[in-house]
Design goal:
The chain is an alpha/beta fold. It is built from 15 helices and 14 strands. α14 runs parallel beside α15.
Length: 388
C-alpha cells in the first residue's frame, strides 16, 4: 500500500524541510508526501514545537509562483500567499522529498476559495433568486475552466510531481465563510435547491444544450418559497424528489456532462497522473462518476470514522458506478479528535490494506501533536503486514 502523508508548506519550512521528509520516510515509513500548491482559507492550530507561530491563519492562496505567461487566455489569476514574497520554496520541497525517497503529490484546489470569490465576483455562481453563491467560482464559466486548466498544467509541468490531486473541480457546495443565521433548518432537498447555480453561464450552457431553463427556474423557486413560508422540508429524499421533475433531472445531467468534459480537458493539461477528489455529495456537485472513469487515473474519497466495512462497501459502489475502473484511493483524517487513538488508525489502515486499497492519504502532519506521530508509524506498519 502506498501511504502518502499530507504536509502544509509552512509547516515544512518551519520545522526544516529535510528534517520533516527524513522523518516521514525513515521514522514513519511513508512512501509519499502531498503538499498543497493552492489551498482554501485556513485557521490552523499548530502543535509542533518548531512552529514559529502557534496559529496559521490565511485566506485562500497559491503556495507557489505561477508561470504568469500561461494565464494569458483568462482574466483569473492565482493569488500568491503574501509571505512567500518572490520565493518559491515548493521547488526545494519537491527536490528534498524525492531525495529522501518520497513520491511527491501536489494538492490543487480548483474553484473553492474566498480570495477567488472576492476578486472575481463576475465568475461566482448565483442561486435561483439571483444572490451570489459565495462558496467558489462557477465551472460553467469558460474562463474559470480555462484558469484551472492552466493551473493544473503549470503545477504538473514545473515540479516533477508524481500526481496532481485535484480538489473542488466541480460546482462548489454550500460552504459559507460568514456566520449563518437562519430560522429554517434545510433538509437534503432544500440544501440542494438552495445551492443550485443559475448564473448567466449556467443559463447559457442550458440554452446551448437545448434545455428550456425557465421552467426549471420556476420549479426550484416555487419549492424554495414553499419551504420559506411553511418551514416544512420536503419529505422525500433527493433521488425521489428528482425522479418526479424531468426538467430538473435534465438540468442536473447537463451539469454532470459539463464537469466530465472539463475533466477531460484537465487530463490533457496534466503532465503527470491526475487524481480526482470526489465531493461528499455527487449530485449537488454535478459529478457523475460513470462519466469520469476514463478521464482520471484515480478517484480519491475522504472518509470519516473507522467502520472499514462501510468504507469498502462505498468504494465498491463507486467502482461499480465507474464501470469497474479500479479501486479509488482513500483519504483518512489521522489527527484528533477525528482519529481518537492509535488502535483506531491501525484498524482503519490495516483493514483497507487487507481489502485491497492500494493508496491512502493521511492528513495531516502539521495537525498531529508530536507525541502522536507514532500513530502513523504503527498504522503504516500494520497496513504493510496486512497487504503482504
Amino acid at each position: 500500500m502506498q501511504t502518502i502523508v499530507g504536509c502544509y508548506l509552512w509547516d515544512l519550512l518551519d520545522e526544516g524541510v529535510e528534517a520533516v521528509v527524513d522523518r516521514l520516510a525513515g521514522e514513519i515509513g511513508a512512501t509519499g508526501v502531498c503538499v498543497p500548491a493552492t489551498y482554501h482559507s485556513i485557521d490552523q492550530i499548530r502543535p509542533h514545537e518548531a512552529a514559529h507561530a502557534r496559529r496559521y491563519h490565511h485566506e485562500a492562496a497559491a503556495y507557489f509562483q505561477p508561470d504568469r505567461q500561461r494565464y494569458a487566455s483568462t482574466r483569473i489569476r492565482a493569488s500568491v500567499a503574501g509571505w512567500l514574497g518572490r520565493r518559491n520554496p515548493l521547488s526545494g520541497v519537491c527536490e528534498a522529498s524525492r531525495a529522501a525517497g518520497l513520491a511527491v503529490h501536489l494538492w490543487v484546489v480548483a474553484c473553492h476559495g474566498s480570495t477567488l470569490v472576492s476578486r472575481y465576483g463576475w465568475a461566482v455562481g448565483k442561486d435561483v433568486f439571483g444572490a451570489s453563491l459565495d462558496m467558489g467560482l462557477c465551472p460553467s464559466n469558460p474562463e474559470v475552466r480555462q484558469y484551472v486548466c492552466e493551473l493544473v498544467g503549470d503545477v504538473s509541468s514545473n515540479y516533477g510531481a508524481e500526481s496532481i490531486v485535484l480538489d473542488s473541480a466541480f460546482y462548489p457546495p454550500r460552504h459559507a465563510h460568514a456566520h449563518a443565521h437562519s430560522g429554517l433548518e434545510p433538509g437534503c432537498v432544500e440544501t440542494f435547491l438552495s445551492g443550485l447555480c443559475f448564473c448567466e453561464s449556467c443559463r447559457q450552457r442550458a440554452i446551448d444544450s437545448g434545455l428550456d431553463v425557465e421552467p426549471v427556474v420556476r420549479s426550484v423557486r416555487v419549492a424554495l418559497e414553499r419551504w420559506h413560508s411553511s418551514g416544512r422540508c420536503e419529505p422525500k429524499d433527493l433521488d425521489s424528489y428528482l425522479g418526479r421533475d424531468t426538467l430538473l433531472v435534465e438540468y442536473v445531467a447537463m451539469r454532470c456532462r459539463l464537469i466530465a468534459e472539463w475533466v477531460h480537458r484537465l487530463r490533457s493539461s496534466c503532465s503527470c497522473r491526475l487524481v480526482y477528489h470526489l465531493p461528499s455529495c455527487a449530485t449537488v456537485a454535478g459529478v457523475d462518476v460513470s462519466l469520469l472513469a476514463d478521464q482520471v487515473d484515480t478517484c480519491l474519497v475522504t472518509i470519516d470514522g473507522s467502520n472499514v466495512q462501510a468504507v469498502i462497501d462505498h468504494l465498491r459502489q463507486l467502482s461499480a458506478a465507474a464501470g469497474g475502473a479500479g479501486s479509488p484511493a482513500v483519504r483518512v483524517h489521522a489527527y484528533p479528535p477525528r482519529c481518537p487513538d492509535a488502535p483506531s488508525l491501525v484498524r482503519t489502515l490495516a483493514g483497507l490494506a487487507d481489502r485491497g486499497v492500494r493508496q491512502v492519504y493521511l492528513e495531516n502532519y502539521g495537525l498531529i501533536p508530536t507525541g502522536r506521530l507514532s500513530w502513523l508509524r504503527q498504522a503504516i506498519r500494520a497496513a504493510s503486514r496486512a497487504a503482504s
